[in-house]
Design a protein that fits this description.
Elements lengths: L1 E5 L6 H14 L4 E5 L5 H11 L8 H25 L3 E5 L2 H11 L4 H11 L7 E6 L2 H9 L14 H17 L3 E5 L4 H18 L1
Parallel strand pairs: 1-3, 1-4, 2-3, 4-5
Helix pairs in contact: 1-8, 2-3, 3-5, 4-5, 4-7
Amino acid sequence: MFITFEGIDFCGKSTQVELLRDYLVEQRKDVHLIREPGGTEISEKIREILLDKKNNAMVMETEIFLFSASRAQLVREVIRPYLQKGYYVISDRFHDSSTAYQGFGRGLSVDAILNIHKLAIGETVPDITFFIDIPNEIALARKRNIAHSDLDRIEVSDNSFYERIREGYLNLSKKENRFRVIDGTKNIKEINEQIIYEIKSLEGVK
């Protein structure tokens, strides 16, 4: 099964990725965890370029192509091989991040981005996507607790950028049946239990 987690920065998705991995391992499942951008030697080098605050002159067209290049490498080098071996592949972000961030957030053509996805990932679409949804005010409050020097090039973006991204995710959740919108304001345990419930339900279908 290919499982992805999405959400605006500071929504808590990375915590839930780890908890789901732990649960599946306890169930004696073979699990491989990945993050985006990154996950391969080439993809990690692209990640460094994308997140480095020194690269603030990067234009949005460059950004979408770099994210997609990293993703294309990850799909062919890691995701597809592990899925073929029967693994549960869990990704902290995937192509929906580009639709939300570069499309709705930056203002690039969503149709153009969807066409780039077709080339970058082909038929490798998640079986289920968890969108951990939190109000922007909560994300902003969490962001204030992090030293500015520890924020990456994208995390330093203003609040209006994140408002557009959240709207993008909500828009996607209405169009994509694989999306599960999770209330990120609930406590960590409640969120984890809901995610496990959704995975069990999908396994029943499969």
